[in-house]
Amino acid sequence: MSNLAYEVLKRNQLSVTESRKQILELFYERNNALEHNDIERITGEKFDRVTIYRTLQTFVEKGIIHTIPTADNSVRYALCKDECTEGHHHDNHIHFICNQCSTTYCLEAVSVPEVLLPKGFQPQLIEVVVSGKCKNC
Amino acid sequence: MSNLAYEVLKRNQLSVTESRKQILELFYERNNALEHNDIERITGEKFDRVTIYRTLQTFVEKGIIHTIPTADNSVRYALCKDECTEGHHHDNHIHFICNQCSTTYCLEAVSVPEVLLPKGFQPQLIEVVVSGKCKNC
DNA sequence: AAAATTTTGCAACTTTGTTGCAAACTCTTA
DNA sequence: TAAGAGTTTGCAACAAAGTTGCAAAATTTT
Ligand SMILES: [Mn+2]
Ligand SMILES: [Mn+2]
Ligand SMILES: [Zn+2]
Ligand SMILES: [Zn+2]
Questions:
Q1: Is residue B40 part of a domain?
Q2: Per residue of chain B (137 residues), what is the pLDDT tens digit?
Q3: Nucleotide nearest to A48 (CA to C1')
Q4: Which residues of chain A fall below pLDDT 70?
């Protein structure tokens, strides 16, 4: 819905522009992770590459989307839950990357497991990325 | 020791060349993860950028080193344990990246925790990357 | 020591990401 | 609802990261 994107932008004190609206809508429609490149491809030539970079960066800063670490060096982005706010991400779920269709899922139902670190190491953030075969492959 | 690198290359049926020996020695000396860029910097202008790319790629294929996923999009490499062989990595440890000194550790002592996935998802590889403050910071 | 094989370095190119700036757009306020 | 202030966009130019083909150099085999 066009309205959701609008509301989210407003709530985050962002000017509502065509690029921001459409890129955000894309995330709501697809409901899985996207890379810069996907967005460029899907939106066609509509927005400048630089605009897409800047939009994604803004969304990350505002806590609207988060990045997902991958073994190859691509950067993927996915929607945050509502608890994330400017400068403070509170995502506590793991990620799944399908080796076949390469879809990337946020598995909100699976929370990050405890890990016991050696003496002297103080954890701040734990990222778990599982790869394998997804439910559709 | 120059000899260790030599042996490892031989065991993996790789021709022993200056670049391979020196890059591999670097991993043994430093004993933590390195990125392409580190290697270029440390070895000075001695080897071509392309050679470093190709050497790292070869080492990964042979199971001599493995890559470590990171949230920013840098690619880090670290030595594998002996059980890794051509085409088959058997690393079962987690990684720690220090936010202060940005050193990346393979925590061999900490094994990857179990994760229970939703129905339909079949795990093949689980990557755990913890970031925070390391034992030296 | 020569021949066969592999690796290297170079050049040229692609892809990815960054920056400064004027023009276009969005928001505010009267 | 129109002008002005502020923000965002697209372009150009650049920098960094990664890839490919190929001849020359090095390594391994015979
Ligand atoms: Mn996620
Ligand atoms: Mn490791
Ligand atoms: Zn799949
Ligand atoms: Zn540290």
A1: yes
A2: 468 999 999 999 999 999 999 999 999 999 899 999 999 999 988 999 999 999 999 999 999 999 999 888 789 999 998 777 887 777 889 999 999 998 999 999 998 999 999 999 999 999 999 999 999 99
A3: D10
A4: 1-2
Contacts of A67 in chain B (CB under 8 A): 71
d(CA B5, CA B24): 6
- Residue A98 is part of a domain; what is its CATH number? 1.10.10.10
Ramachandran angles phi, psi of A134, nearest 5°: -85, 175
Do residue B127 and residue A125 have CB atoms under 8 angstroms apart?
A: no
Amino acid letter, A81: K
Q: Is the residue at B137 inside a domain? A: no
Rounded to whole angstroms, how far apart are CA atoms B77 and A74? 16
Q: Domain total for chain A?
A: 1
Give counts: helices (H), strands (E), chain B. 4, 6
Residue A137 located in a structural domain: no
Q: Distance between CA atoms of B97 and B103, rounded to whole angstroms?
A: 6
* Domain ranges, residue B84: 3-132
B80 is a domain residue: yes
What letter represents residue A61's amino acid?
E
